[in-house]
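Reading group handout, session on sequence-to-structure problems. Before we discuss, look at one worked example. The prompt was deliberately terse, the way you'd type it at a terminal:

> structure Bacterial-like globin family protein

The input record follows.
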Amino acid sequence: MSRKESVMTSPHALAAREKIRADAAALDIDQAFIDRLVEEFYARVREHPRLGPIFNNAIHDWPDHLAKLKKFWASVALHSGSYSGRPMQAHLKVKDIEPAHFGEWLYLFEQTLRDLADDEEAVAYFMERAHRIGESLKLGLFFRP
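And the output record:
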């Protein structure tokens, strides 16, 4: 067993993962909710006047991409461990992204959440993570040494 595997299966790590999943479940966040969120959000992204062209030019197989995004968000929100991609590498290939697009993406993501979530805490749960992800991508894309 590798060091990473032993850390991920330590009693502390398992307890932390279970707490995250319990917190999400208490907010009615489960795989079905994540699937709806990803489908609805990216349908809106594809129609957005500024984000749509960027995404539609970069993504050629939407069903495959949506499946990856569902795994990504399940890993983020539920610690499912189902995603193993490299999002930074994928985003580095898209030359049309500008820093301002992250604010538009976050705004649209929050509006979608507000339309789908029954609870303000569920919106906050996802938005905290979305802000962290967006900031990480923005720093990696535009402010790399």
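Points for discussion. First: Confidence is low (pLDDT under 50) at residues 1-7. Second: The chain has one domain: 3-142.
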